[in-house]
Amino acid sequence: MRPPPLRRARLGATLCAIVAVVVSGCAIGPDTGPDVVTGGGGGGAAPSSSSATPEPPMIEAPKTDLTWTECARATATRYGVTAPAGVTVECAELDTPIDPDRPTATTLTVALTRARVTDTPPDAAPVVLTAGTDVPSSRALLLLARGPGRSLLTQHPVVAVDRRGTPTSSPLDCMTRFERSAMATNGLAGNASMPQSERIDRLARAAASASDGCNETLSPNQLDFGVAFAAADLEALRIRWGVAHLALLGLGEGSDVVLAYAADYAG
């Protein structure tokens, strides 16, 4: 079930890794031209249209910010990368309802990572970065800060929000050692000479067992870790900051989260 939209929310979104395709219709055969109407009656004036592009909503610095602590070395070590030189990397946590429809029920903890440089204006509004489940947002932030994307930090701090259920944000841990090993090794589990039929059977049994076990462990919240709920975590961050809009940067699968946020909370 998707979280319901909140009418008061607004969105200022920047989308990455999204390709827009414009398709025009074509007709086969000779063009006979438009129909012609003859007579003395003059047509009315064509309706005027404005080509002015609406101004994007203003974004602002958080009114009630989170508690940030320095974490450059720990974050870089976690992902086996070099911490970007000259970049301040800080971490914080946000408690958010596991089910937005029941905000007073069980909560989970979402990890956030912020990057900024000396030139980042202290009152600049943050850009919120979200990536997928394959590449954690915090790792994507370190890579962005080491590459050409670093220029963004001279204008705005960037805050990465790790997806719920990933290792830093209330990780899901519902598989046994056998299940995890079988899936990680594609059924081989240290025996490279295993016959293919046995490997497939081992992998199938591990997958079925993990599905049953995780379904039982996560009940009744099995479906609360998808894109719509990742978007709900962004909305929880907006509310926590006390701002009217978010500037969002979606990388890879994170573009799905940005689109879900726009669908559920823009208005």
Question: What are the key terms here?
Answer:
hydrolase activity, 267 residues, alpha/beta, Rossmann fold, seven-stranded mixed β-sheet, hydrolase, signal, Putative hydrolase, globular, disordered N terminus, 2 domains, 7 strands, AB_hydrolase_fold
Secondary-structure blueprint of this entry?
Elements: E1 12-15, E2 69-70, H1 72-79, E3 88-97, E4 107-116, E5 127-130, H2 137-146, E6 158-161, H3 177-184, H4 196-218, H5 227-241, E7 247-250, H6 254-265
Parallel strand pairs: 1-7, 5-6, 5-7
Antiparallel strand pairs: 2-3, 3-4, 4-6
Protein name: Putative hydrolase
Keywords: Hydrolase, Signal
Organism: Gordonia rhizosphera NBRC 16068
At a glance:
It comes from Gordonia rhizosphera NBRC 16068. The chain is α/β, with parallel strands linked by helices and 267 residues long. The chain has six helices and seven strands, in the order ββαβββαβαααβα.
Task: Please tally the helical runs, counting DSSP H or I stretches of 4 or more residues.
Answer: 6
CATH superfamily of the largest domain: Alpha/Beta hydrolase fold, catalytic domain
Measured between the Cα atoms of the first and last residue, the distance is 20 Å
Structural class: alpha/beta
The third-level CATH topology of the largest domain is Rossmann fold
* CATH class assignment of the largest domain: Alpha Beta
Side by side, the strands of the main sheet go 1-7-5-6-4-3-2
- What is the typical, i.e. mean, pLDDT? 79
Tell me what portion of residues adopts beta-strand conformation.
5-15%
Using DSSP, what is the number of strands? 7
Shape: globular
**How does CATH name the architecture of the largest domain?**
3-Layer(aba) Sandwich
Order of helices and strands: EEHEEEHEHHHEH
**What is the radius of gyration computed over CA atoms, rounded to a whole number of angstroms?**
25 Å
Described by strand count, sense and barrel closure, the largest sheet is: 7 strands, mixed
What number of domains? 2
Q: How would you name the oligomeric state of the polypeptide chains in this document?
A: single chain
Low-confidence stretches: 1-43
Helical percentage: 25-40%
Region (Disordered): 37-60
Keywords: Hydrolase, Signal
Signal peptide: 1-29
Organism: Gordonia rhizosphera NBRC 16068
